[in-house]
Amino acid sequence: xxxxxxxxxxxxxxxxxxxxxxMLSFVPDHIKKEVFSEYGETLEAAAEIIYRFNVxxxxxxxxxxxxxxxxIAMYEQFGIPGLAAFKKTVDLCREKGLxxxxxxxxxxxxxxxxxxxxxxxxxxxxxxxxxAPFGEDFATVNPYLGSDGVKPFLDVCKKCGKGIFVLVKTSxxxxxxxxxxxxxxxxxxxxxxxxxxxxxxxxxxESGYSEVGAxxxxxxxxxGKRLREIMPKSYILVPGYGAQGGKGxxxxxxxxxxxxxxxxxxxxxxxxxxxxxxxxxxxxxxxADAARQAVLDMKEDISEAIGK
Length: 308
Description:
alpha/beta; about 15% strand; globular
């Protein structure tokens, strides 16, 4: 699957992933009013609202980007209807040829981890039928429980041709409470990076990159530089651009010399662009056009920074 992601990145010349993390506050009133009139003020309405909002974003941006990253919590909060909207969003994006990174941050052991891997990347058997429950191309994985939690995902990656992104150094301010603690003279995030490299050797793609990638926040560029050295064959998913303070100039060391090796996420900086002063002229009715312009601006910023 990493080969398809690289192919999409080369085609669009945009190492960008749009985070489909919709909140009701991001959705223009005209969509909410329309749906509430059909469904009432219900969980079903909330789920339909965020799905229709996503359709607008995806239709406007699909030709510009290689991938999307729906954050499952934004859907789960609306219960079963929300999960149905998540699945519909995944299906829509795959129909558009986009790679889908399920931001699910799963991490457990044994049969539980295997079940998570089957649900998001693999298949399940129901009688004589086989189903792919959610059907993402990649999933984010929390490695805190060690190899026991990651191995079931590796097994599914090898069996089904999928990929994972392991949390290594996250973009949030308190990440250092654990991730920066020194163990045997090294910060914990470096030790996790070394395990990502080791796990990745089991799942190499003909592109030269591994199906096992890493999540490293744009808010920590110097740590990103070190982790790039530790994990030369792992793709780095870089959150923290835009709304969390990361800029194109912070991203240089996340990429390899071939201009590949990283993909940068922006969520509300794109999907809620219409609420920003910079894009206010688009107005709520044209929220999707504002998102498209935000993608174009992000692409230019990153291209200038990495010299592509």
